[in-house]
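Just scan my protein:

——
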Amino acid sequence: MEHFKYRLDLEENELKLLQKILDKVDVNDLEENTTFLSSLVNNPKKIRYSHKKYGATVKATEVRTNNAKDKIKSAIAILKKQNKSITYYSISKVGAVSYQTVKKYISLNEIKE
């Protein structure tokens, strides 16, 4: 199976026009802007990724995820052993992972148990 990413190559004037459209600064030229956007979006550059590169990316993500989960589990064990309250914040501090990472991998039900 082939894997692709898509990229839009913009010149400076195209970028500025796109920024104006997104910021809704220039709504008077809506028809012209719509034509530009549709031509831009309908012709993205197709970037091919090799199976090897895709597999390496997937593996690296999996390793990072597992490391974060291990840190979170260790932090919970440490907090339980010290009889401290177990919250997202305390887990993130003890486990040296971000608060958002803890929220991503642990539910409130798991914390209460």
Q: What stands out?
A: Strands lie at 3-7, 45-49.
